[in-house]
Amino acid sequence: PSNPKLQLLRYQGKWLLQSWVPGIIAIQRGGFAPRRGGGDVVLASLPKCGTTWLKALAFATMARRAHPPAGDEQHPLLRLNPHDCVPSMEKLFAAGLGSKIMDALPSPRLMATHVHHSLLPASITDNPHCKIIYICRDPKDMIVSLWHFVRRRLPEIPFLELFESACEGRCLSSPIWDHILGYWNASKTRPETVLFLRYEELLHDPADSVRKLARFVGQPFSPEEEEASDVEDIVRLCSFEQMKNLEVNRAAGLSPALQQNAYTNGSFFRKGGTGDWANHMTPEMAERAARRHRRREAPLIRPLFLMI
Ligand code: A3P
């Protein structure tokens, strides 16, 4: 695309935003050192698969002692976009701010990445002190969400063009399937350090996912917290309606951390549901997208992608 902010680059077989690549290289070269015993948590996702929601839920859960999810008018999630509460590693490192900001974060640190599992260094993927939480979404809904997102910058881009490039493995974070499968496999081989969540399950039963997340990061809800409905308060605080309508997320103004992307805080909240693909794809297109993602690793796809 002509917009330099959206320029893609093929790096180690993956299509990535060109602006991320210097950050990825810095991370691969050891720029990010997990804290021993510090309980670092990396939130991983394909773009448009619920990153913003996962950032909000994980932040609210892990910070709940300092910031109770209800009755705290100064709660960071009421004042900041979730992307400003949980930094994106490749963007920070690309801006040369990685070590400075990461070092300043209190333990357990919470950060995020859109990078494929195979591109992350062993210091993250093979480290008992560093946990990964992945959020997966039906790729058809991801493609639709991505189109709406990209359209804010490139209003003229036809849906068919983005659909084709996604099917051919040439769109942002392609190959999509490699991205999902990398984290899926890791969650099977190292379940103690990789948790695999699905956007659709979060929608269906957000409280269950929040409890799962809290247990995974070693901060399960106590009987007192359950009694006080803390889980439900976190779900409410991070719900689509609540987040979308917050002043900070409605304002057209950009937060400094998001400025480099040239999107507004509101760009991250659109419909917040499942199945919007049906409003954009013919049954033949949907079948083609599913086939594309079914082509490899066929036995795995059944349990992983029953929803496609
Ligand atoms: P739609 O475009 O389908 O509405 P990401 O955060 O990875 O960029 O993903 C954005 C998608 O997640 C968008 O999907 C957005 O509306 C949805 N989303 C953002 N916050 C959400 C929330 N709190 N609950 C549910 N969905 C949310």
UniProtKB/TrEMBL annotation:
Keywords per UniProt: Transferase
A single GO cellular-component term on record: cytoplasm
GO MF annotations in UniProt: sulfotransferase activity
EC number: 2.8.2.-
GO BP annotation list: sulfation
Domain (Sulfotransferase): residue spans on this chain: 40-291
Family recorded in the similarity comment: Belongs to the sulfotransferase 1 family.
Protein name, UniProt field: Sulfotransferase
